[in-house]
Design brief:
Elements: E1 8-9, E2 19-24, H1 28-44, E3 49-54, H2 57-66, E4 72-76, H3 84-93, E5 100-104, E6 120-123, H4 128-143
Parallel strand pairs: 2-3, 2-4, 4-5, 5-6
Antiparallel strand pairs: 1-3
């Protein structure tokens, strides 16, 4: 697994499932802040968790090619060469239904999140309660049993 930083929070004990969150932002201070919020959420939910930090969309895509085992994607929209919306489109083109939670300082991007079936779009500074609710929904989608249709 390619994961910068990425200490594992393990309140349930070793061997339990781990919630793997990819956090993508080109600003180190934002990466730190989002990781702290994710860590607090995981601790409060008693979830084993791992935050994988990426300083660019390109770095995430490189890692994603090697390992697609992420449970959700916490993604800044406004970044360098490749922005978060372009990254989300690339992830969807891979056929992934990973829950995407956008964080942005620009409200004009909010509606574009629907184009890539984003789970939530949050404004910066991120409200911890809104992020917690979005992470709860992402985890619920991860734990939901697959629906099997028979004819």
């Amino acid at each position: 697994m390619i994961c910068e930083g990425g200490d594992t929070i393990a309140p349930k004990g070793e061997g339990e499932n781990v919630v793997r969150m990819a956090i993508v932002d080109d600003r180190a201070a934002e990466l730190d802040h989002l990781e702290r919020l994710f860590t607090a959420w995981a601790f409060s939910r008693r979830e084993n968790a791992q935050a994988c930090r990426f300083a660019s969309a390109e770095a995430f895509l490189f890692a994603y090619e090697e390992d697609k085992r992420f449970d959700a994607l916490l993604l800044d929209i406004q970044m360098g060469e490749m922005d978060g919306m372009q990254l989300a489109h690339a992830v969807r083109e891979h056929g992934s239904d990973i829950p995407i939670i956008f964080v942005t300082g620009y409200d004009d991007y909010m509606l574009k999140g629907y184009d890539v079936a984003a789970l939530q779009c949050l404004m910066k500074p991120v409200d911890p309660n809104k992020l917690n609710a979005a992470l709860d929904r992402a985890l619920a989608a991860r734990k939901a049993p697959e629906l099997i249709l028979t004819g």
